[in-house]
Write a structure and sequence with these properties.
Strand order of the largest sheet: 1-4-3-2-5-6
Strand content: 15-25%
Order of helices and strands: EHHEHEHHEHEEH
Distance between the termini: 45 Å
Helix content: 25-40%
CATH class: Alpha Beta
CATH architecture: 3-Layer(aba) Sandwich
């Protein structure tokens, strides 16, 4: 029997097609969310995810990784991305031992997902100005130092 975690789509939460322990009534306002494309998983991503796990434990929140779908990444980055398809990116995230839930979304912005989950906190890399971080109304924005030499754009040699 497989104990492999499944990636859920934002629309699954909206329609209520999720396990009972992930029902929005149970988790709204009780999550911490980190979002991104995670196109090529690298040490900078792993640091962010490790910090997500640590903060979720300390704050007694459910950790969520909001993953941009392929459709979303094309809208944001252009037709040459993603480099790794969403099924593989979500599978890689689910293989990690940290107990977060991976939620796929199709929009350019993560705002609809934030409005649905109403997270207590949002975790983002420190390279993003706090005022630019997409969040729910009262969400606390927490930044974490990133590894400056690691980025998917740099790894891929993307010059856009």
């Amino acid at each position: 029997m497989s104990n492999e975690r499944q990636t859920l789509h934002l629309d699954d939460f909206i329609s209520g097609h999720v396990p009972w322990f992930l029902n929005l009534d149970q988790i709204c306002g009780k999550t911490i969310i980190a979002n991104g494309c995670f196109d090529i998983l690298h040490p900078g991503h792993l640091r962010l995810l490790a910090n997500l796990d640590t903060l979720a434990y300390k704050m007694k929140l459910r950790p969520i990784v909001a993953l941009n779908s392929d459709e979303s990444i094309v809208k944001i980055k252009g037709p040459s991305r993603p480099l790794v398809p969403q099924e593989s990116r979500s599978q890689l995230l689910n293989y990690l031992k940290w107990p977060f839930t991976v939620v796929l979304f199709d929009e350019e912005s993560v705002q609809r997902l934030m409005d649905v989950f109403q997270p207590f906190a949002v975790l983002k890399g420190a390279e993003y100005p706090i005022e630019s971080v997409v969040k729910w109304k009262n969400s606390e924005v927490i930044t974490t130092e990133m590894l400056p030499s690691w980025s998917t754009t740099r790894i891929a040699g993307d010059t856009r």
